[in-house]
């Protein structure tokens, strides 16, 4: 999901940043052990430059804690809190979003320092004005579960690791200096409003605190409990004014400065438990998850959790950079959604009440507009039990909040982005055998999501409520289409509604609800109303039945035109559920192929003074930096020209993914950009989630093995593989030569061997039936 209001970023900038960052490839990403664990291939700095918006800090798979350095808080590229182009660190906060296009979190900032007491962070231009410190990238180390850096202004070595719910800090201060540490509760990413905050000193080694924040998530709560290995004295500040003679403080701009008079030869250690529920939850998380002071043990445990996570897929062949991109992508797909419940099972619900989960975990951070496309389909292969937990979390949110979320954050509906993409997540899981959830409730929820109805939505903000049930739904219900002159971004909304409705129709049919099936199938065909045969594009349709003018398919006016974060060139192809129907409305196979060829060969110019910065990673007008384009390369498989899918997916993987900080062509988006790479690097893609069918592409590894949770195995074997041999000459499933470039999820579940024979020439006869 991307949501900036910025000018367009051209590929020239992207290419120049690649050159700048090229020296960072493979920088200080050594494994903890001298062997070939898959963690050796993870480079947490990938995506921290450009517009990737990732962070390099310490976390565990789906961890509640993401303990990472913050270098900036304002601007689009501050969404992850860290940007590789920066040279000073503001501090280390305990919560972060990975690759989003809107910033939030950045909770409970800790910053060690020496010298005079400081309560302001200073500025990137002049860190000396506050507690910031300069740093060099040469002094950073980032590996899964661990991060360290030298704070040059204070000569302090900072090390971070984490368990699921606890951040663990280790600081090595210079001798003969008083150790100081600031805890800044006013710090947030994107400078969100702190409604209320408080500190309480529990003892001379323990301090707790709380924040209520209004931001992207409009009603967010977080508690912390911190223990130190050395006694401290506390100074409290409210709006930079010292408050004397108290052990607790309430306000909106609170800072605590702790001074440690202990043994200067010892590391300062602090463990910080967090919770969305209450102080007791934060304390219990801390005491039970990390009951000791062994930093190295927590670091090793975090590392081991990543070893286990990354062992889900094994690859052989490919270059070292390709393996690094692949396993870093797999790392990114395991960072969110985050576990949201405390160790005792309690969590804050969408109704803002405290609930207790029975089994499994409750999760938060659902970037559904992005992740329905490849992220959730990937998990239906590699971790179906976890994806089942995600579905159950979504259904719980429906129960507590009154509607399925579009983009959920910390038990808040944000209303961000369009469509109702919890639907394909649920339906895709259902048709791939991942359905340990209440099927009747799930069907009720997805039908409800498609219909205009503001009743029963449990959220205090009318603005967000309007986004959850927008007028576009009402128009689609009552008029059968969405007029461009009464609804912004009408074309994109209409196309996504049509796809979502197709998903509902498939589940309705499988459940024997034939009346619903017919109704939603009719709705799924409404994309045809927006296709203009004269220009060959999907266009905004006004109330008078005429297409909106003027029209330029390369024009973009970010978030205030007929398309979301794109233009007509990118959005015309969003009919993944009915490619044959799209071929027909375009005038047949030859015209469809000609238009598709033109998409990739026309100039990459984007018109408009406020064109969307999300139109990035361009090949012609194909924009890999944003999700609506992600399925398009595989459309050639439907019209008998599969070699073009193979050539284009190879080009994207080799020219738009890199092993350096600017290694992503757009926002990482909570695992979606990475999941696209993982699936395509293995040689196939889930083209239309909600369908159990996969389409093949160009595998880049000689061998891939996935340990399925049912005890079976998916193997992908690629023979005669090399960078030049990028064209499939034959494709076999379990030894049988396949006559189409498709196979089914059932084949995977039963255990399968996919076998590709590669060559250097286009095999135009393959699958051309």
Automatic annotation (TrEMBL):
Which GO MF term does the entry hold, naming one? carbohydrate binding
Q: Which keywords does this chain's UniProt record carry?
A: Calcium
Q: Biological process (GO) annotations?
A: carbohydrate metabolic process; glycoprotein catabolic process
What are the Glycosyl hydrolase family domain coordinates in residue numbering? 281-760
The record, for InterPro entries, names:
6-hairpin_glycosidase_sf (IPR008928), GH-type_carb-bd (IPR014718), GH92_a_mannosidase_put (IPR005887), GH92_N (IPR041371), Glyco_hydro_92 (IPR012939), PNGase (IPR050883)
Look up the coiled coil feature and give its residue ranges. Answer: none
- Annotated protein name in UniProt: Alpha-1,2-mannosidase, putative
Subunit architecture: Monomer.
One Pfam family in the UniProt entry: Glyco_hydro_92N
Q: Name one GO cellular component term.
A: cytosol
**Membrane is among the record's keywords:** no
């Amino acid at each position: 999901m991307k949501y900036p209001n910025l000018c367009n970023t051209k590929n020239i900038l992207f290419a120049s940043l690649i050159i700048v960052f090229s020296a960072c490839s493979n920088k200080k990403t050594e494994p903890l052990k001298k062997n070939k664990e898959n963690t050796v291939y993870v480079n947490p700095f990938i995506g921290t430059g450009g517009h990737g918006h990732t962070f390099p800090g310490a976390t565990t798979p789906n961890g509640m804690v993401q303990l990472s350095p913050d270098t900036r808080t304002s601007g689009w590229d501050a969404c992850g809190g860290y940007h590789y182009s920066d040279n000073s660190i503001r501090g280390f906060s305990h919560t972060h979003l990975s690759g989003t296009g809107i910033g939030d979190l950045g909770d409970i900032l800790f910053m060690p320092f020496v010298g005079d007491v400081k309560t302001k962070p200073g500025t990137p231009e002049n860190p000396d004005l506050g507690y910031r410190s300069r740093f060099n990238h040469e002094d950073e180390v980032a590996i899964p579960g661990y991060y360290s850096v030298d704070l040059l202004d204070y000569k302090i070595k900072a090390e971070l690791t984490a368990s699921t719910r606890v951040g663990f800090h280790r600081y090595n201060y210079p001798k003969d200096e008083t150790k100081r540490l600031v805890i800044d509760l006013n710090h947030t990413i994107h400078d969100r409003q702190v409604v209320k905050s408080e500190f309480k000193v529990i003892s001379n080694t323990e301090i707790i605190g709380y924040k209520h924040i209004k931001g992207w998530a409009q009603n967010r709560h977080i508690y912390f409990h911190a223990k130190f290995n050395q006694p401290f004295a506390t100074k409290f500040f409210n709006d930079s004014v010292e408050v004397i003679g108290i052990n607790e403080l309430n306000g909106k701009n609170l800072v605590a400065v702790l001074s440690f008079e202990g043994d200067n030869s010892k590391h300062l250690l602090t463990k910080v438990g967090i919770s969305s529920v209450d102080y007791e939850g934060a304390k219990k998380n801390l005491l039970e998850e990390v009951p000791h002071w062994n930093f190295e043990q927590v670091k090793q445990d975090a590392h081991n959790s990543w070893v286990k996570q990354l062992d889900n897929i094994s690859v052989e062949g490919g270059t070292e950079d390709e393996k690094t991109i692949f396993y870093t992508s797999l790392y990114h797909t395991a960072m969110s959604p985050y576990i949201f419940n405390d160790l005792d099972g309690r969590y804050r619900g969408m109704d803002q009440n405290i609930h207790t989960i029975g089994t499994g975990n409750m999760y938060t951070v659902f970037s559904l507009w992005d992740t329905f496309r490849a992220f959730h389909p990937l998990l239906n292969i590699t971790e179906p039990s976890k994806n089942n937990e995600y579905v159950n979390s979504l259904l719980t949110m429906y129960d507590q909040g009154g509607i399925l979320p579009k983009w959920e954050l910390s038990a808040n509906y944000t209303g961000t982005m369009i469509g109702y993409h919890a639907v394909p997540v649920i339906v895709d899981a259902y048709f791939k055998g991942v359905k340990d959830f209440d099927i009747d409730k799930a069907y009720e929820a997805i039908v409800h999501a498609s219909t205009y109805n503001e009743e029963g939505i449990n959220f205090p903000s009318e603005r967000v409520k309007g986004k959850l049930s927008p007028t576009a739904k009402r128009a689609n219900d009552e008029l059968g289409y969405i007029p461009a002159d009464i609804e912004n971004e009408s074309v994109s909304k209409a196309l996504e509604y049509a796809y979502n409705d197709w998903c509902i129709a498939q589940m309705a049919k499988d459940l024997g609800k034939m009346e619903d099936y017919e109704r939603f199938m009719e709705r799924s065909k409404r994309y045809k109303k927006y296709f203009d045969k004269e220009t060959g594009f999907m266009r905004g349709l006004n109330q008078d039945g005429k297409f909106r003018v003027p029209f330029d398919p390369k024009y973009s006016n970010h978030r205030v035109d007929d398309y979301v974060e794109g233009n007509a060139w990118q959005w015309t192809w969003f009919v993944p559920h009915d490619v044959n129907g799209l071929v027909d409305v375009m005038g047949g196979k030859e015209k469809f192929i000609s238009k598709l060829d033109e998409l990739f060969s026309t100039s990459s110019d984007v018109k408009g003074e406020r064109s969307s910065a999300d139109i990035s990673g361009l090949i012609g007008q194909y924009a890999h930096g944003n999700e609506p384009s992600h399925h398009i390369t595989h459309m050639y498989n439907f019209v008998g020209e599969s070699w073009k899918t193979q050539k284009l997916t190879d080009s994207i993987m080799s020219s738009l993914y890199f092993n350096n900080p600017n290694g992503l062509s757009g926002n990482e988006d909570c695992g979606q950009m990475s999941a696209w790479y993982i699936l395509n690097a293995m040689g196939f893609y889930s083209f239309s989630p909600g369908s159990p069918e996969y389409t093949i592409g160009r595998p880049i590894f000689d061998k891939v093995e996935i340990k399925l949770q049912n005890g079976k195995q998916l193997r992908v074997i690629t023979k005669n593989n090399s960078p030049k041999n990028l064209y499939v000459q034959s494709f076999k499933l379990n030894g049988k030569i396949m006559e189409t470039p498709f196979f089914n999820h059932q084949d995977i579940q039963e255990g399968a061997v996919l076998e590709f024979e590669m060559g250097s020439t286009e095999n135009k006869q393959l699958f051309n039936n």
